[in-house]
Amino acid sequence: MSRLVSHVDIHSDVYRHNHAEMTRRVKTLRELTHKVRYERPQRDIERLTRQNKLTVRERLDLLLDPGTPFLELSTLAANRAYGGEVHGAGQVSGIGIVQGREVVIHADDPSIKGGAWYPLSIKKIVRTLDIALENRLPVIHLCDSAGGFLPLQSELFPDRYEAGRIFRNQCMLSKLGVPQIAVVLGHCTAGGAYVPALADYSVIVRGNGGVFLGGPPLVKAATGEIVSAEALGGADMHTSMSGTCDYPADNEPQALAIARDLLAQTTRVDKQRIDRVAPEDPLYDPAELYGIVPADWKTGFDMREVIARIVDGSRFHEYQPQYGTTLVCGFARIWGCKVGILANNGVLFNDSSLKAAHFMQLCDRDRTPLVFLQNITGYMVGREYEERGITKDGAKMIMTQVGVTVPKFTVIVGGSFGAGNYGMCGRAYDGRFLWMWPQSQIAVMGAEQAANTLAEVKIRQLERQGRELSEAEIAAIREPVLQRYRAESDAYHSTSELWDDGILDPVDTRNALGMAIVASLNAPFGEPGYGVLRL
Amino acid sequence: MNSFRFEGAGHRAQHEPGSDRVRVDDCIVTLRPDEEGGFVAMLDGRTERLQAVADGDRVWVHWRGRAFVLERIDPTRSAGAGGAEAAGSAHAPMPGVLVSLLVERGQAVREGDALLVIESMKLQTTLCAALAGTVAELPFAVGQNFQRGAVLARVHPAQAAT
């Protein structure tokens, strides 16, 4: 494989401007992340201390192997919802290492609204368990939740991917032979009671842990029975009488130690065998990514410069270097794992779409995972391109992308617009993981295009009524659309709604991808097979 | 390293499998690592000690108080520089609108200098000079639309220095 040769001038004004802009954005990202992880009102911390509880971060420190990485996911979920008060949607999720094995963590955060499940908390838990299912990763649940947030029950309870899906996913994990361990550190009430009940193993802390379908207040209201939480569903009752939980623990550190030991009792599965060698750092410094990504997402840039700062040794074998040049395709290694990369260097044309489809089939046949680096404003529009069949060529790309059975990973580096998002493995396309960069944009179309389209429709409507709009009236139609589109197109909105698995500092992209690729190898790939291509 | 460049000339090197012999062009060198992280080389019955450090595709060799640099030749890389845009015209890669002109007619440009910025499908692309010369034509004005393949700038090559 050839080494990529960078043409970036790190002393140029453009580089410095971009670097300053990205540095500012990453600072904002870090500050918000710190706030979400650690900043809590003093009274909430005091309440936990009084209850003899640890914070969720302290729990993770005791659970995970010391000094190992924790790939936290959707840290900023719900940052634009519920008045910005439900940090991380009240949940911590991610992939960590326990006893040398990758596990998925699902942890309620009791310092956020008592660990109550908001609609986006449910979405985050379901996504977390989907990750466990798709990658066959053992799950450790750290349960400490006040239960569903009742004022929003209609948004979190009834639908296919709402609360019931958590328990359905637990059943599917069990059916597929993926171990689950629940540690009951607080109350698991109503639906939440099924989390430990559906786990293979459960540990419960004396005094704080409680598992019941109806808590003491509900029991009193329903039947008049007056009973304490400890008697109704405490550690000793469940581990000696009901058999709902397996191991009592005197305190949280003991409970977490038991959970670690339990994981060691489950059988480790063999990873899928792919082409994998010893990893090598990129030749070019990943920190230079800051200066490469333009401050304005509309400005094009060469994605090879990004690839050179993500892959092993900055080595890249480019496929069809002279054909369909707006899509860069080729082979590289990340953390030693061979991958096929598809990266946008402009709009998708007929030839770039066909190239993508062919390249994905080659990777699928050779069991090579796919990495999509998105900076895509869409497939080319216009008469010439429609006549050449741009729509059916894009359909070939989408059909093939859905058909491949190797794991897919997506990073939205710049824009992710319209059908380009589909072809390049957007959220709906079952990639194993999807991340965004801080300045990236995602929407069905650009804000200006949407505003102009809507203004155009309105102008024509009124023209038919014989009215003509003034400049000010047109602006009055455009402005609100522009503002709403802009607010809803940015990475923070996307991550708030869990359209992605988190916003990455660009320098972390390589490690996030590396950890995700290696984790994905726990699941079998399946046999290649495709739908019918419109040739 | 199979081919490398040293002081402007290309050389071939081939390690003989299962041995510590390396064939460099027509010579055989015996090369063993020493205890200090360097190498002991034997050539024509002489023994030389040297240090070598790889930095990407370059290898720095320190021998008898002097430093030498060897550059790996990548056999998969073509010798020409792209070639596609060898002529001096900048063609529109797709239909779009001219956003800004960064040069004027008659201006001298170097290879790689930015000529103009176009926008198409929300994306702004800077087109650069494929060769050094003088800007001869800029057929489109800012704000004007163009079709794919339209000539957006023509650069007359500079006369080769004699």
Briefly characterize the structure.
The complex is a heterodimer of chains A (535) and B (162). In chain A, 41% of the residues lie in helices and 16% in strands.
Topology of helices and strands:
The complex is a heterodimer of chains A (535) and B (162).
Chain A: H1 13-38, H2 42-50, H3 56-63, E1 71-73, E2 91-98, E3 101-108, H4 119-135, E4 139-143, H5 153-156, H6 163-175, E5 180-184, E6 187-189, H7 194-198, E7 201-205, E8 210-212, H8 216-223, H9 229-233, H10 235-242, E9 247-249, H11 252-265, H12 289-292, H13 303-307, E10 317-319, E11 327-334, E12 337-344, H14 350-365, E13 370-376, H15 383-387, H16 390-403, E14 408-417, H17 418-423, E15 433-436, E16 441-443, H18 447-464, H19 471-489, H20 491-496, H21 509-520
Parallel strand pairs in A: 3-4, 4-5, 5-7, 6-8, 7-9, 12-13, 13-14, 14-15, 14-16
Antiparallel strand pairs in A: 1-2, 2-3, 10-11, 11-12
Chain B: E1 3-6, E2 9-15, E3 21-24, E4 27-33, E5 39-43, E6 46-55, E7 58-63, E8 66-72, E9 89-91, E10 96-101, E11 108-109, E12 114-120, E13 123-128, E14 133-137, E15 145-146, E16 151-157
Antiparallel strand pairs in B: 1-2, 1-8, 2-3, 3-4, 4-5, 5-6, 6-7, 7-8, 9-16, 10-12, 10-15, 11-14, 12-13, 14-16
Explain how this protein is built.
The complex is a heterodimer of chains A (535) and B (162). Chain A has 535 residues and is of the alpha/beta class. Chain A is built from 21 helices and 16 strands. In chain A, the strands form three sheets. In chain A, strands 1-2-3-4-5-7-9 form a seven-stranded mixed β-sheet, sandwiched between helices. In chain A, α4 (119-135) links the parallel β3 (101-108) and β4 (139-143). In chain A, α4 packs parallel to α6 (163-175), α14 runs parallel beside α16 (390-403) and α18 runs antiparallel to α19 (471-489). Chain A starts with 12 loop residues before the first helix and ends in a 15-residue tail after the last helix. The model of chain A has no long low-confidence stretch (mean pLDDT 95). Chain B has 162 residues and is mainly beta. Chain B has strands at residues 3-6, 9-15, 21-24, 27-33, 39-43, 46-55, 58-63, 66-72, 89-91, 96-101, 108-109, 114-120, 123-128, 133-137, 145-146, 151-157. In chain B, the strands form three sheets. An eight-stranded antiparallel beta barrel of chain B has the order 1-2-3-4-5-6-7-8. Chain B has a four-stranded antiparallel β-sheet with strand order 9-16-14-11, with no helix packed on it. Residues 80-86 of chain B have low confidence and may be disordered. The chains are: A alpha/beta (535), B mainly beta (162). Chain A binds chain B through residues 2-3, 283, 296, 298-300, 314, 317, 322, 326, 346-347, 349, 377-378, 380-382, 384, 415, 417, 446, 448-449, and chain B through 56-57, 74, 76-77, 84, 93-95, 119-126, 148.
